[in-house]
Amino acid sequence: MSDKLRVYIVAGEPSGDLLASRLMKSLIKKTNGNVEFFGVGGETMQELGFKSLFDSSELAVMGLMEVIPSIPKILGRIHQTVNDIVEKKADVLITVDSWSFSARINKGLKSLKKDIPQIHYVAPQVWAWKKRRAKTCGKYIDMLMTLLPFEEKYFTPHGLKTKFVGHPVVESGAKSGDRIKFRKQFNLSENDKVLCVLPGSRKSEIKFLLPVFKKTVDILAKKYPDMKIFVPSVETVEKVVKEHVKSWALPTTVVVGQDNRYDVFAGADVALAASGTVALELAMAKIPYTIAYKLNSLSAFIAKLIIKGKYANLVNILANREIVKEYLLDKCNPDLLSKEVIELLENKEYATKEVEDAIKSLECLGMNQEELPSDKAADVVLSFIKRK
Q: What is the largest CA-CA distance in the chain?
C-alpha cells in the first residue's frame, strides 16, 4: 500500500465542497503532494481529480418536509459511506459542515472502533439553536475546526478539542471581480442599473425563493423598466433557475462559475440574496445587499420555535446589530424586498454606510492576515494526526 496520507473527506453541500477543495489544495502543498483523497464531494473538489462516492447533491436538502421523503436514501448513503471509509483504510476522516449528515457518518464510524481520527470542519451553530449539540459533538468526533472566533467556548467545556481557523470567505476572491470587464461583456453602460439575484444553491431553497424574487422583480420593473438582472448559479441547479427566470419581467441572465460570479458582484449596483455564506462574499465585494429566506409553513413554524439567535446573517451576528436588513420567513415578501432594493439604489448614503459597516464586521474572520484559513486548517489536521 502507498505511504501517502489517505484523507477521506465528506462534503455534502456546495459551500462545504468549496471549503473542502481549499483544504485539499493546502494539504497537497504542505505534504508535497504526498496525499490522496477519497469520499463524497462536489464539482469544485472534482476539479482537483477527486472522485465522489456518489452525487453529493443528494444531501443538499433543507426543511423538515423536504428531508422526510429523502430519509431512506440518506440512511443508505450513510451506511455506504462508513463502509467505504473502512474499505479505503483512511488515515483520517474529515467531515465538512452539514452536521446532521456528518454526525451520523461519525457516529457510525465510531461504533466500529477502527481508531481512525475524526475531524469536523465548521461547527454546528449551537449559539443559534440546539445548544445540546455542543455536548454531543465530542461523542462522535475527536477534533473540531471552527470558522468563527466565538465558537470555541461552546465546545471546549465539554472536553472537545476545538480550534478556530478562520472563515474561508476571506480567501474566496469575492472582491476580485472586474466591473469594467463585466459591463463591457454585456454591453452595459455605467448608467444601467444591475441587480444581482442569488436564490441559493439547494433545490429546496430556490423552490421557495425564486417565486418571491420573481414577484419582487415584477415590482422593480415598474420603477426601473431598463434594469438588468444577473443570477450567479451553480451547475446543480442551473437548469431549474434558467427555466424559472424565462418568465421574469426584466431581462435576466444566469451565469455559472466563480470568476463570472465575482464579476457580477463587481458589476452590479445592488444584490438580493438567500441567507448564507454568499452574504459574506457580498460584503467582501462591497456591494449593498439584503437577504431573504423562506421555508414551507411547517418548517418555518418549527424554525421559529428552535432558533434563538437574533440574526441570520453572519455580518449582523458578528456586529451584534442589524447592518444588513434581513427578510426571513413571514417577512420574506416582494413588497418589503423591493422597497429595500429601491432604498439601496436611491439612498447612496444609506448604501455606503451598510457596505462600510459590513466590511468592518468581517475583520475578526481572518481578513488581512498572513496565513489563510485553509492553511491553518491543514496545519491543524496534520498536527492532530502527527504528520507535521
A: 66
Question: What pTM does this model have?
Answer: 0.74
Instruction: Indicate if the pLDDT at residue 235 is higher than 90.
Output: no
Question: Do 134 and 154 meet the contact criterion of CB atoms below 8 Å apart?
Answer: yes
What's the rounded Cα separation, in Å, for the pair 51 and 3? 20
Return d(Cα 383, Cα 229) in angstroms, integer. Answer: 47
C-alpha cell, 381: 489536521
Backbone angles phi, psi at 370, to 5 degrees: -65, -45
Pairing of strands 143-146, 92-96: unpaired
Q: Which three cell numbers stand for residue 149?
A: 472566533
Query: What is the bridge-based pairing of β-strands 5-11 and 289-293?
Result: unpaired
One-letter amino acid for residue 219 of the chain: I
* Residue 127 · residue 309 · CB < 8 Å: yes
Long-range contacts of 308-311 (CB under 8 A, 24+ apart): 308/128, 308/129, 309/125, 309/127, 309/128, 309/129
Sign of the alpha-carbon torsion through 82, 131, 62, 274: negative
- Taking the alpha carbons at both ends of the chain, their separation in whole angstroms is 21
> What are the phi and psi torsion angles at 93 (to 5°)?
-110, 130
How is residue 11 written as a grid cell?
462534503
Size (the chain), residues: 388
> Tens digit of pLDDT for each residue in 283-324?
999 999 999 987 655 554 445 544 566 788 888 988 889 999
Q: Say what the alpha-carbon torsion angle 220, 222, 228, 232 is, to the nearest 10 degrees.
A: 30
